[in-house]
Amino acid sequence: MELYRSHILVCAGTGCVSSASLEIEKRFQELIEQNDLSKEAKVVKTGCFGLCEAGPIVIVYPEGAFYSQIKVEDVDRIVAEHLVKGRIVTELLYKESHADGVIQSVNEVGFYKKQERVALRNCGVINPEVIEEYIAYDGYEALGKVLTEMTPEEVIQVVKDSGLRGRGGGGFPTGLKWEFTAKAESDQKYVACNADEGDPGAFMDRSVLEGDPHVIVEAMTIAGYAVGANKGYVYVRAEYPIAVQRLQIAIDQAKDMGLLGENIFGTGFNFDMEIRLGAGAFVCGEETALIKSIEGKRGMPIPRPPFPAVKGIFDKPTLLNNVETYANIPQIFLRGPEWFSSIGTEKSKGTKIFALAGKINNTGLLEIPMGTTLREAIYDVGGGIPKGKAFKAVQTGGPSGGCIPAEHIDTPIDYDNLIELGSMMGSGGMIVMDEDNCMVDIARFFLDFTVEESCGKCTPCRDGTKRMLEMLDKISEGKGTMEDLAKLETLAKTIKSASLCGLGQTAPNPVLSTLKYFKDEYEAHVNDKKCPAGTCQALLEYKVIDDKCKKCGICAPKCPVDCISGTKGKTVYHIDTEKCIKCNACLEACPFNAIVKG
Amino acid sequence: MKSLEELRKLRKESLDRVDMRRSGNGTRIVVGMATCGISAGARSVMMALVEEAKKRNLQDVTITQTGCIGACRLEPMFEVYRQGEEKVTYVHMDAEKSRKVIADHVVNGNVVSEYTIGAYEK
Asked: What is this structure's pTM?
């Protein structure tokens, strides 16, 4: 048996790895060896801790000292001071964790205090590449219980009782989906996991796969037992190489240990699974397109019915759930469906992982109970807006979602509330915007994405989104009219109701929600040819403030189109706004801040 | 994995791999490891404590270091904290005495009074 007196957890999620966390881990190993501490201190690579803003993160137990933004050079100090002499290196700690001179452990820090980590419970705690660590924290116990003590019907009932709803965006009751798949009659059924995670800026599923891959193996096996399938597919986007690697290791380890494969736990139940890679198509996150892709065909959606539960992969009944949905399953069986349904609101049970990004202090992943308000998520957990700027809106649900303005910031987060506000939960992306963001530009940005990703099969999406984008481009260049705004709204509503799949049906959401809540910004672009937030380049006017101009003549030669006139030492300089291409070169060059844009 | 029992056995064995990453309510042993402690030989006391706890398969025991406890002439020292008990300060310790403390105090709950600071001061 090994007993160490100290564990050093180094985050090896993609974010921290790209900031050299693997070199940090190596350095720890070297110095521990050198200082003869190998029998006392253990270095463990874990998955993402969630507070990516503070990365690379190192947590030293038993104190729970939360070191943040660590560089390889810092490791020497941590080993010399903390590991050898027991003195926590306060300068390297995450600032919030020692604000009043009292060093808090990681669980007490503001970012983590309000979180309830269910799906993320093992991320940042265990080494995802060591199955024994997953087992130590009750891994595969739920599977054992299910296979040896419960019937498939009982399993489905538990999931139904928990109130779990799909975490991929649809929010469909999971127990019901399992029931439909179980009831379908066929010689072969499949279980599949949607790990495509196409929403830009979303990385909830990636963190689960990188930090706790075994939870997916266990949950899918439980699902297979419940619906009568003996084969599983995990569809992971190829842009997640670390997740793919760790998941494959987990599958292999589970197989070696007999927790996957033939006759699991001696019950006669067989289940096997494999990984299928995506190839960069957002539309392949849509369930029917995903299934086509697994079959080796071009990822294009089909009309439903028939739903995948009846006719899915290779035309067989298929249960397809999102990574996060699966991540909740083992806990529901270990702690009971009543425990799960005691968290959250009446119609939205449990917790949800959100990827907080944009104009926010604590960018990263947070898992909070449903019903937590947007304000709590953004200010208490997220740490508020940097530089003291005013909150303007929060975009939830990625390119399929909408923008929610400040007046609704006290809304409790759940599936239905967000839809009522014109947005949606989506997969959990939460992008915060401040007073410097232009809402027309935001709508244009998301539409740009969906236009590229449209599969092209149905006219409303293929042509409609492109026309919407053209109109938004026109508006942000100051060439829009009020008639364009009316056309934009009608077109958006048409695309929403006539598109074949979720991509087209939700692509207009950013446009519709910004038109609803920020009409004045659109009108300013159209009527006044001005961008109130100061973002849309074409609508900005560069001019020289006469009083501040020192006639130094530095700006004129910088101009690539020669539109600045004046005489050095004699006259104030002047920009010809007709010729100006708004490149910003003069503004940056002026040493007296005499040139402004607005 | 042939049975659920086999899994549960593996879990028990694996628990000590990760034990300290959750906050525990067990025994906490804090060894003085400032310059005074280290020069008096606290490191071998620390090693002995860790080895003995390992040998006896003890759960929920945290062995950690701290700076100067104050009574430098009494080093090597360590203090034992247990739930519901007053802390006990052991002074002038060495590897052998430390093993006895693990056996008598931590495992069986009997404070080894002759090694404590109280006994020394008499």
From this structure: 0.82
